[in-house]
Amino acid sequence: MGQSLLKLLPINAQSGQCGVECELGMRGLLVSFVQALDCCFLGCLVNGHGCDCLCVRLARRFEAIHCILDQGLQLVFDVQYSPGGENPGCSRALTVEERYVTSKSNIVLGAFTDLLQANSFRMPINEPTALDPWWNSYKAAIDAGIAKGMKVIIGFWAKDKGIGKPVDNTRWYAMWKVVIDAYVSNPLVFYDIHNEPHGFTPAQWITQVNGWIAQFPNVPRQQIIVAGSGWDDNVGNVASSWPDLMMEIHNYAYNGPTTTAGWKSNLLNRLGNAVSRTIAGEWAGQVVEDYTTGIEGNADKSFIVGTANTILENKMGSCWWAGAFAPSGGTSGTTLLIQKGTGDTMTFTVNNQATLTYVQHSWGLN
Predict the structure, then answer these.
(1) Torsion angle of alpha carbons 291, 6, 228, 51, nearest 10°?
(2) Could you tell me the CA-to-CA distances from 302 to 208, 310, 350 in Å, in that order?
(3) Which of 17, 13, 285, 10 is nearest to 155 (CA)?
């Protein structure tokens, strides 16, 4: 099995605007680690609210990813959201000292690798992240993962509420140029072109991706990740446009079936012929302690068991949404870890070993 991926949340320090502005509210900001077929993601705390995270495991020749997205984790930066709306944006921000970012990143990375067995991380960006003054501090979190030998998935999250696509392609390309210039020669860095591109029709999304590839021909194709159309929920209707690229699908327990067989069909039917090169970039249900009974007929249990088995059987990558939750000691419905303390004293413990076992099962670890 390949190394794992951990994801850190791009959050800004002290009373400032965060480097990444959220499009999807609680799920907006996140950072994840992706190495080999494993990955982990972190979230951030915002005025008592949180941002979810998830795990991914890459498929076959793209290597495996063990990944967890953490929810509400006040990690490398302190984040402050503006009140109201499903898409709280980030308020004023200050640059974070790079040594501070590296120190806190190392604590988080250690928790994910040791407790969750992750070895990679996914880092969200948007135009202000790369084009505004805090880029060097933000970049320090990416560099901390690379220094540990982790693979890093850098993914674009549209910052503008409800749009689901860049407002200005010129700035979008400028953002990606900053990132690619910094890391194009590093085989540990992957490029997730656009998270949940629901602002495009499938045909428009194909055109957008082709434009990105033409704009950055120096990016190794084996390090490019393309989202399924819509909310990353349909790979099959676009994947044939790029037969050699890694694809990404998202799925959650609220999407319908209540049997393990139903969830297997639900996932595979949306992948077309791209199963062997698709990662489950986000998947999650309510964590439970007992999987000995009542799996069939229960949406969350059947989703977790059926999806974990399907990911493993098809050698896909898997990325669980919600590894940890802030504030200190807090939990949520999909939390796998509990954070205790803050800053240099923060530690983590496993909140739900039964569900973690199935997440690790999807990675082929047990």
Answers:
(1) 80
(2) 36, 12, 22
(3) 10
**Across the 366 residues of the chain, what is the mean pLDDT of every consecutive 10-residue run?**
33 29 27 28 29 31 50 29 25 44 77 81 85 85 85 86 91 98 96 96 98 98 96 97 96 94 97 94 87 95 97 88 64 78 81 90 87
- Please tell me the number of Cα atoms within 13 Å of 268 on its side-chain side: 17
Task: Write the DSSP assignment of 111-135 as a string of letters.
Answer: HHHHHS---EEEEEE-HHHHHSTTH
Q: Which helix (H) or strand (E) covers residue 179, if one does? A: helix 169-183
With contact defined as beta carbons under 8 Å apart, do 172 and 204 qualify? no
This model's pTM is above 0.90: no
Alpha-carbon gap, residue 71 to 287, rounded angstroms: 13
Domains of the chain: 25-362 (3.20.20.80)
Of 133, 137, 31, residue with least CA distance to 75: 31
* Cβ atoms of residues 196 and 24 within 8 Å: yes
Rounded to whole angstroms, what are the CA distances from 307 to 93, 110, 319?
A: 39, 27, 11
Q: How many CB atoms lie within 10 A of CB 218?
A: 8
